[in-house]
Automatic annotation (TrEMBL):
A motif ('HIGH' region) lies at residues 35-43. One of its GO terms (cellular component) is cytosol. Gene3D superfamilies: HUPs, Tyrosyl-Transfer RNA Synthetase. This is Tryptophan--tRNA ligase. Keywords: Aminoacyl-tRNA synthetase, ATP-binding, Cytoplasm, Ligase, Nucleotide-binding, Protein biosynthesis. It comes from uncultured Thermomicrobiales bacterium. Homodimer. The gene is trpS.
Length: 354
């Protein structure tokens, strides 16, 4: 039986508690990102931007999930470089290590351990129904790794280790958070109240940014063509070129809505990276055609990414700072995770209590 769908969908940023709320009383947030390439504006608008905007209100744990990246073939040197690159990008985008724990998943062994234990309360059929598995396996079920199949259980372990209440993610992670809720509920019923049952925190805007060259496909780090993907590190000319060449809908009106997937996506990106609403933009570009719109959108994206790229440049020359943030983050995460695992092992009757 499936736990009742429970998703927090809010507009804008959280409004409730203030910075004066002590960390111990703040709601617990956990989210993760794979170090499988440079983050793009989909990752930024669907996840990172919300993590940054909300971090003062919550007790946050943000994880670079390198163990998840192993579910597809990876080169060790590239994985390490991507891990450091993603950590640097998160800090450049505004994640503040004084507000949030930032760490690398494989530095905290409890994630892999809890994954194995949760496997024992997860059904094979549940994993077979995961749409991300079907997409990533691409019909090659016999050849893909068992890690790709088990991926959502490791994600459940990530979330459940930290008594997480809210999981801020893009729309593509909805089903994984639902499964996490089912696993937690089943574990609690079998072994006694152990895990907090988390909720996905998915904002209606930006939860699904589409590829610029194919508005029916999600913008993705692993896309075959990078023409549809604006990476956080793309230079100004590359950004302008990708937007100029982006696919548009038939007609010439700058309007969003059904039947206008390309313009809806471009207007969403413009509105979320700038200060205007989609309807204000539609009004501004009425009768002006796609050319002027794309040219201004290009400048808006360049301007929005400029401060992040500037900070990225600074942080790239301070690798010791990034390493210290990750080491401190791992220590703090390990303290929480090991306390939780002691409880879980005890509940499950594992070990001899030494
Ligand atoms: P990943 O690395 O694919 O993506 C990281 C975050 O970015 C969001 N996202 C998008 N949002 C809007 N439009 C897009 N085109 C887009 N592409 C990606 C994702 O929804 C995600 O929030 N399985 C996770 C990583 C993970 C995790 C976790 C997340 C591992 N453990 C625990 C939350 C909690 C993933 O592959 O994300």
């Amino acid at each position: 039986m499936s736990a009742k769908a429970d998703v927090v969908e809010e507009r804008g940023v959280a409004t409730a508690p203030s910075e004066s709320v002590p960390e111990s009383a703040r709601r617990r947030v956990f989210s993760g990102m794979q170090p499988s390439g440079t983050p793009h504006i989909g990752n930024y608008l669907g996840a990172i931007k919300h993590w940054v905007a909300q971090q003062v209100f919550y007790d946050n744990v943000f994880c670079i999930v390198d163990l998840h990246a192993l579910s597809l073939p990876t080169d060790p040197a590239a994985l390490r470089q991507n891990t450091i690159g993603l950590a640097t990008a998160l800090l450049a985008a505004g994640i503040d290590p004084n507000q949030s724990i930032v760490f690398v998943q494989s530095d905290v062994r409890e994630h892999a351990e809890l994954c194995w234990l949760l496997n024992s309360v997860t059904q094979f059929g549940e994993l077979r129904r995961m749409t991300q598995f079907k997409d990533k396996a691409g019909g090659q079920d016999e050849a893909v790794s068992a890690a790709l199949f088990d991926y959502p259980v490791l994600q459940a372990a990530d979330i459940l280790l930290y008594d997480t209440e809210l999981v801020p993610v893009g729309d593509d992670q909805r089903q994984h958070v639902e499964l996490t809720r089912d696993i937690a509920t089943r574990f609690n019923a079998r072994y006694g109240e152990t895990f907090v049952v988390p909720k996905a925190d998915i904002k209606p805007e930006g939860a699904r940014i589409m590829a610029l060259d194919d508005p029916t496909a999600k913008m993705s780090k692993s896309a075959a063509s990078q023409n549809g993907v604006i990476s956080l590190t793309d230079d100004a000319d590359t950004i302008r070129r990708k937007i100029r060449r982006s696919v548009t809908d038939s007609g010439s009106d700058v309007v969003s809505g059904p039947g206008k997937p390309a313009l809806t996506n471009l207007l969403t990106i413009y509105a979320l990276l700038g200060d205007d609403t989609v309807s204000a933009l539609e009004e501004r570009y009425a009768g002006k055609g796609y050319g002027a719109f794309k040219s201004d959108l290009g400048e808006a994206v360049v301007a929005a990414l400029a401060p992040i790229q500037r900070r990225l440049g600074e942080l790239q020359s301070e690798p010791e700072h990034v390493a210290t943030v990750l080491a401190t983050g791992a220590d703090r995460a390990r303290t929480r995770a090991s306390a939780k695992m002691a409880q879980v092992r005890d509940r499950m009757g594992l070990g001899l209590g030494t």
